[in-house]
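call fold(seq) -> tokens
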Amino acid sequence: MSSAKRIISGSAASWINILVTLVFQIALVPVFLKYWTVNTYGAWILISSVINILTTLDRGHIDYLTYEFLRTDNRKKRFLSKLLWSGILMNTILCITELLVIGVLVKSNLVDALFGEYRHVSWQLLRQAKLSLVIQMLLWSVFNSNVALLYRFLFNYGYFPRYIWLNIISTCINILVSIVAVMMGCDLLQTVIYSSVAVALFSLFQLANIFLLLRKVKVALTAANLKLGFRNFITSLFFSLNTFLETFRQQGVRLVITPFVGTSGLAAFSTMRTGANIALQGLSTISNPLLPELMRFMKQKEQEKIDASLGLVWFILTALLAPGIVLLQYAAPGLFHLWTKGQITFNPLLFAFLSMGVLVYAIAQPGMTVIKGNNLLKIQIVVGFLSTATLMGSLLLLMPFLNILGVGIALFLAEVVAAIGYFKNAKKWMIANHLTFPDYLHQICIVSLLITAFSCVGFVYFDNAKLYVLAIAELFLFINMIRFWNKMPSVAIQKISFFIKRYKLTY
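ret:
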């Protein structure tokens, strides 16, 4: 399979994954709010956030090893095998440690305090939440983390699309089982048990598939080297710190705001952020399959192909993401009321700031890919610290006056700081390595962001003229998209046109 086909195929599979998640999440919210209380739904969301924060160390370790795999010639199989199995050994030690940590947390009162309104939450719900945390951590430790690391190893042999297709099946199983369980009257704990067992069974199939692929690419089982694994883990701590800072910006903020707004407030915030979260996942479906090819282009100093690869993410922004956000902002109030069955009040300004944060994140993606792909950990950590400091400072200043709207503004400002940091450092690194950053495409994307921002605010303050605001915004965004297309490198236009006309998925 050619490089272009791998990028398009991987991205297409990933977008289908996002589409599946979108469909299920649209169905999930009204179902959960029909059979569960808002507090129970908020507790379910909070459990996911706690797991994401607690697994930072091994997720950072897995991400670090992924880039090490990609940086290594895939013909050096003996070294790669030792790197993989040493990583598996270290990953197992990390998972056991995290299980012990979750046990301590459950035994203490820290989990209770996270709920904010815990004095108004039944002891049964608290007990279910604690046991659910243990089960979810056990699922991650035994299955999910090892499956993730093994498949990341296979990215170096062109198996990213297959990984995503299997992920689609896993997502369907997890969400379908959860929805069916809730509709059958299951409580929080029962729902987590059923979905976890289903995902574990499918993970066994994935592991079997992985070992067949390892045999196919002729990678043998090698004795793990604890010293090598520990050395990589120590190096990955910087990566884990950056992973923590990013996770905190995207999901960990829930842990900060819940003691102040309670699980019902968290449910309102998270529900309004659903669209933004899906868009963020969608962006990663472009950047993830892009990364292996971009690294190769950079090694070979192929400037036009680098511009085409980076421009692909921004083209998605100008052609689909920005117009889609404007349309969604227009239709959101009515749809949101129907979707949540009127149990959660829609906040148009909060929705607007969350949506604009997604666009800023999209603009930052190419710069972020350059920095991450080259394992420039110091830059990632500095940018992460500045962004997180902006988030925390803004939360302290804005939340007392604006409640959850202040959270949306704080997240937006944090994304702006991160985007500026990644852009400046990526440009600096590329110049130092005799490459150039495509500024001309970057500037056109910023215009799309400004058009979207003005239209989102316009919908709020010109409620009687919303249709006119929509028409004007979409017209200007279309003109800007044409400008972007005309500036795209010819190789990118040829490839996109070819796959639009004759798209064929290759497995």
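Residues 502-507 have pLDDT under 50 and may be disordered.
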